[in-house]
């Protein structure tokens, strides 16, 4: 099967290249498309060659390149919300470079959209299972405590879900939260949440564009099974100084951007900080006066436009959650990323981007006073990576991408230091672990005929677990699902950088689009993904203390194959976009945990890990009104996500914790007038599965929960539904200062949505000689209506 | 760790996002009934009890039905080879045996001087239970227990974390050299066992909870263990009751338990405190009771575990000195 597919890919590739042989002299028009007001590169601008009804779109750096037979043409640059520009181009003599600045539409949107012959991009592009949200849409949606949230917004799209408030991350098409590759300017972010799942780490003021790919993932991306969330930061205004910010219930934000040298060098710095501790300070007693409860993030970027051919971007992110109660207790965690990117135009047809990044996620927990008794625990994951990638705009019909990636990981799964009665105990922890993940890929996007387009590629990925390390072998479990014991004498010592185990995977990727007419198309895709690092978490919500762990001699990489099929149809001049997709995802070698697994600071952790398989399938329905005073979307997902692991649930399939049969979202944004905007969203989600006991028994007066049938996730908690509202008032001002008030109401009808139901004895002291009294407790993380007001400004 | 999570939950509440917990009514399917063996034996010159009962529906608060008419024996595998017969003349499911004299009490399994466990570890006593066609067996040992050095009392002034002045007890004892000593610390306040789920104090060498660190061994217990002799507050009391006051009595027993017993008790404790944002999936508490025939397969839960016991008791007669180094 695999071999056949590769052969097919090769044939198609040759077919694509062979078209070149008979072509006449070709010319190329290329350049960058930018926002006229601030110089920001615009991603996904459609550039259409009117005469040929062909063209391209700008890449994440705003670059486009179109190769056509020599001649005179008209180019149309089109981008939603911006003026459409037409440009004549003479390509009879030579290639042309057109850097274009387009302005935001000043009139109502409908009036400026030129009714083109072409269908909108969602129908015409090859890529399927892609969700794009512009930051303008995200900022208009109601948000918890008025904090505009990238991660929360994508959860309203088809195929994306969460197990509830307070759960970090998100689930895509039945995958775990660790199966999403979250990239901020190409650098991975390992924990995308502040305060657990309540707020995302991305400052909306610094974000330009958010794209989620759920299926048909192109060959340049790899390393996670389920999705890619590509978050792109603004570059910084290259025209003039500007600032924006806001004061909300949780955060205050300030973003500054300005040119250092106009059109050449610009920067953006965006900071947010929660200030609950500042407000609380006067009320804290002496022993707590130096307490810290806050979370903050700082996002910054410098953008240097060296010359026509070279651009450099340096982006940095620093985010932290800190909870420290005087000398008694301290805990903090956060991400740090630094990425350096270099765009180089080797020719009009060849765009090369090289990214080098460093990323670090760490946490720390401290208890006690170092002079007497104390405990200090830290863990982290660090990555260093280089990623050169070349896009070759071969001709009007083929765009090739070739690249490689090498990532060095250093895992510190946990280290502790303890002091007992003033005596320092020897430090204890799990040793550092090293891994090298590499990948080479080649991909091509090919227009075969006007109707048929393909995107195909191949990625060869590999992971080497390296020393220095002492490896162990584990005996088979006595019974499936139970702990495996290390084999005595099986220790093997490896030197620094000495390879221990290498895994390699060939990952084919394929997408096809057949377009019936301007308004409708059908698409299909297949992708294989390999994931070499694993989040070790078996809790309801993943916690900041969960560790990342590499594939080792005892832990194999996780693999997934996904097929998807979709029908895309637009109505009324693309005012309405509709799509239906079905998908099936097959997952293997998924990390699972033995019964009663001990995941924190366990030297023999690998003995507590097991392998399982998974399958997820579903159908996603989406209808979006793209413009007009009233816009928004309806998204509905019907899906199933199941796991099967020997030793769990009597070796039968069971619903994964994040399995949600129905998931419905409605988002409506209504522009009442120039001053008033109203938006709302409504979510209805089936209850997530949970394991409930049937019996109990008495041991020493205690009565534990017991389930003789051993069934996992045998019940479901009640359904989740919630309505949010937001009203924005933007008093028009003649001056430069532009302010707006946002009133948001989260959970309008005050529902106590269950996060989980758990079973516990009554915690109060019971009468003597009476057994514990058992009860079922429903936990709601946000159990009330949450109104808030915030003020945002821009100048 | 769970304690810190609840601090986080508290913080979320602090942010005005009222997280809340409601007691709800749930209809649970009835599970298959199984035998329950509750067999903790010890080295004391006291009546030894083994309780046999049946599993019951989860929400049933009345006592479980007793298993009557069973044959219960404990065989001594190192030494005398005697077989102790536990009997239940009053048919309440509690099968008892009384050592005839102090010399007849159950004995501690001695490790070597280096702390090596030897062949009799968890293989010193064999329990056999027979009821009709059902037969079960299980093995355990009675392990060494250190003596208790002192029960130190201090007065801690009111603070934000603990808003009333209180007397705090601190238990000092030193773990033996040699890995894998397991203990269960039980405390009685004014004659009443502190038996809330959070008050189960389980110790692996010197720390509460499982401890794979080969180096944390053989020192005094670390603070969470030492402070494990203090009661926890009831939820609605909001820490307004002192742990101890002048006039109270404290009685502490330090029980050695086996690795299997430790595992059983910690699994049972997590099972009964499973909840909140970061709850792992609920799992059945493992058992060390082994079915001896096919009919008995999957028919039994429970624990057989031996203990040696050290004790200390004090009556608080005067206000102990103040100590501000306690972090509450």
TrEMBL record, chain A:
Keywords in alphabetical order: Cell outer membrane, Membrane, Receptor, Signal, Transmembrane, Transmembrane beta strand, Transport
Entries under InterPro entries matching the protein: Beta-barrel_TonB_sf, CarboxyPept-like_regulatory, Plug_dom, Plug_dom_sf, TonB-dep_rcpt-like
Range of residues in the leader sequence: 1-23
Bilayer topology: Multi-pass membrane protein
Start and end residues of each TonB-dependent receptor plug domain: 146-224
Superkingdom of the organism of origin: Bacteria
Cell compartments where the protein resides: Cell outer membrane
Family listed: Belongs to the TonB-dependent receptor family.
Descriptive protein name: TonB-dependent receptor
Organism the protein comes from: Algivirga pacifica
Lineage, highest ranks first: Bacteria, Pseudomonadati, Bacteroidota, Cytophagia, Cytophagales
Automatic annotation (TrEMBL), chain B:
Superkingdom, natural source: Bacteria
One protein family per Pfam: DUF4249
Cross-referenced InterPro entries: DUF4249
Full protein name: DUF4249 domain-containing protein
């Amino acid at each position: 099967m695999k071999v056949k597919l590769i052969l097919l890919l090769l044939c198609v590739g040759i077919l694509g290249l062979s078209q070149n042989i008979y072509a006449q002299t070709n010319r190329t028009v290329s350049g960058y498309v930018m926002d006229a007001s601030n110089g920001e590169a615009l991603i996904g601008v459609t550039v259409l060659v009117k005469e040929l009804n062909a063209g391209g779109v700008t890449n994440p750096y705003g670059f486009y390149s179109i190769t056509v037979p020599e001649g005179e043409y008209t180019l149309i640059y089109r981008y939603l919300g911006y003026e459409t520009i037409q440009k004549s181009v003479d390509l009879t003599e030579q290639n042309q470079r057109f850097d274009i600045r387009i302005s935001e539409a000043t009139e109502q949107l409908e009036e400026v959209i030129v009714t083109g012959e072409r269908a909108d991009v969602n129908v015409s592009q090859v890529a399927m299972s892609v969700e794009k949200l512009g930051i303008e849409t995200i900022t208009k949606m109601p948000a918890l405590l008025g904090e505009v949230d990238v991660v929360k917004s994508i959860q309203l799209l088809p195929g994306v879900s969460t197990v509830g408030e307070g759960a970090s991350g998100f689930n895509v098409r039945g995958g775990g939260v660790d199966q999403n590759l979250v990239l901020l300017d190409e650098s991975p972010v390992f924990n995308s949440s502040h305060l657990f799942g309540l707020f995302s780490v991305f400052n909306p003021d610094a974000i330009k564009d958010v794209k989620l790919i759920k299926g048909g993932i192109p060959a340049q991306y790899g390393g996670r099974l389920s999705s890619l969330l590509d978050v792109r930061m603004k570059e910084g205004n290259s025209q003039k100084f500007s600032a924006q910010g806001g004061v909300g219930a949780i955060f205050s934000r300030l973003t500054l951007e300005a040119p250092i040298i106009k059109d050449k060098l610009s920067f953006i710095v965006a900071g947010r900080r929660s200030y609950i501790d500042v407000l609380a300070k006067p009320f804290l007693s002496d022993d707590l006066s130096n307490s810290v409860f806050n979370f903050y993030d700082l996002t910054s970027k410098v953008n240097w436009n060296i010359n026509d051919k070279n651009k450099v971007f340096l982006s940095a992110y620093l985010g932290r959650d800190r909870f420290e109660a005087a000398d008694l207790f301290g805990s903090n965690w956060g991400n740090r990323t630094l990425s350096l990117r270099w765009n180089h135009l080797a020719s009009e047809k060849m765009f090369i981007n090289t990214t080098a990044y460093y990323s670090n996620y760490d946490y720390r927990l401290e208890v006690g006073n170092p002079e007497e008794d104390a405990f200090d625990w830290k863990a982290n994951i660090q990555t260093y990576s280089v990623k050169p990638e070349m896009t070759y705009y071969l001709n009007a019909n083929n765009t090739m991408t070739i690249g490689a990636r090498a990532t060095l990981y250093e895992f510190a799964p946990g280290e502790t230091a303890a002091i007992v009665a003033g005596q320092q105990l020897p430090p204890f922890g799990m040793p550092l672990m090293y891994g090298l993940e590499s990948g080479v890929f080649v991909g091509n996007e090919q227009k075969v005929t006007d109707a048929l387009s393909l995107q195909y590629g191949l990625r060869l990925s590999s992971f080497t677990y390296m020393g220095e390390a002492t490896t162990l072998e584990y005996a088979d479990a006595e019974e499936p699902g139970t702990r495996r014991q290390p084999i005595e004498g099986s220790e093997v010592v490896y030197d620094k950088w000495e390879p221990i185990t290498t895994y390699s995977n060939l990952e084919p990727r394929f997408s096809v689009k057949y377009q019936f007419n301007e308004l409708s198309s059908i698409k299909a895709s297949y992708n294989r993904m390999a994931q070499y690092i694993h989040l070790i978490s078996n809790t309801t919500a993943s916690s900041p203390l969960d560790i990342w762990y590499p594939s080792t001699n005892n832990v194999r990489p996780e693999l997934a194959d996904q097929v998807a099929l979709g029908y895309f149809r637009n109505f009324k001049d693309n005012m309405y976009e509709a799509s239906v997709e079905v998908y099936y995802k097959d997952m293997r070698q998924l990390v699972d945990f033995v019964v009663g697994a001990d995941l924190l600071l366990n030297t023999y952790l690998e003995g507590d890990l097991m392998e399982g398989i998974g399958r997820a399938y579903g159908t996603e329905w989406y209808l979006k009104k793209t413009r007009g005073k009233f816009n928004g979307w309806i998204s509905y997902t019907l899906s199933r996500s199941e796991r099967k692991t020997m030793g769990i649930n009597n070796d039968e399939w069971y619903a994964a914790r994040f399995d949600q049969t129905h998931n419905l979202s409605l988002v409506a944004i209504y522009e009442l007038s120039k001053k008033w905007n109203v938006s709302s969203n409504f979510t209805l989600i089936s209850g997530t599965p949970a394991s409930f006991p049937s019996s109990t028994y008495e041991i020493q007066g205690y009565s534990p929960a017991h389930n003789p049938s051993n069934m996992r996730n045998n019940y479901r908690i009640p359904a989740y539904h919630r309505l949010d509202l937001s009203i924005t008032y933007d008093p028009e001002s003649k001056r430069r200062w532009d302010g707006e008030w946002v009133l948001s109401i989260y959970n309008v009808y005050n529902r106590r949505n269950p996060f989980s139901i758990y079973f516990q004895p009554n915690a109060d002291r019971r009468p003597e000689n009476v057994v514990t009294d058992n009860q079922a407790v429903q936990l709601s993380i946000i159990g009330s209506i949450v109104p808030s007001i915030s003020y945002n400004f821009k100048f | 760790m769970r304690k810190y999570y609840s601090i986080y939950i508290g913080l979320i509440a602090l942010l005005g996002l009222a997280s809340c917990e409601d007691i709800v009514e749930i209809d649970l399917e009835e599970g298959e009934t199984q035998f329950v063996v509750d067999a903790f034996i010890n080295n004391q010159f006291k009546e030894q009890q083994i309780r046999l009962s049946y599993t019951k529906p989860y929400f049933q608060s009345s006592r479980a039905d007793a298993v009557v008419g069973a044959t219960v024996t404990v065989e001594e595998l190192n030494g005398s080879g005697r077989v102790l017969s536990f009997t239940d003349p009053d048919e309440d499911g509690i099968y008892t045996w009384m050592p005839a004299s102090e010399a007849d009490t159950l004995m501690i399994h001695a490790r070597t001087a280096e702390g090596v466990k030897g062949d009799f570890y968890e293989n010193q006593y064999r329990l056999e239970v027979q009821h009709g066609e059902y037969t079960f067996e299980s093995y355990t040992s009675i392990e060494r227990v250190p003596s208790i050095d002192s029960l130190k009392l201090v007065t801690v002034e009111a603070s934000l974390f603990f808003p009333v002045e209180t007397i705090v007890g601190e238990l000092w004892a030193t773990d033996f050299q040699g890995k894998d000593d397991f203990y269960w610390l039980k405390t009685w306040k004014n004659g009443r066992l502190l038996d809330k789920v959070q008050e189960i104090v389980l110790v692996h060498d010197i720390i509460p909870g499982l401890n794979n660190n080969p180096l944390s061994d053989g020192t005094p217990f670390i603070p969470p263990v030492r402070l494990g002799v203090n009661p926890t507050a009831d939820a609605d009391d909001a820490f307004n009751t002192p742990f101890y006051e002048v006039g109270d009595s404290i009685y502490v027993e330090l029980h050695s338990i086996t690795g299997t017993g430790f595992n059983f008790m910690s699994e049972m404790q997590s099972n009964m405190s499973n909840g909140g944002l970061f709850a792992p999936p609920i799992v059945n508490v493992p058992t060390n009771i082994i079915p001896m025939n096919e009919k008995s397969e999957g028919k039994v839960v429970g624990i057989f575990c031996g203990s040696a016991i050290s004790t200390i008791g004090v009556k608080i007669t005067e206000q102990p000195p103040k100590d501000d180094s306690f972090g509450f």
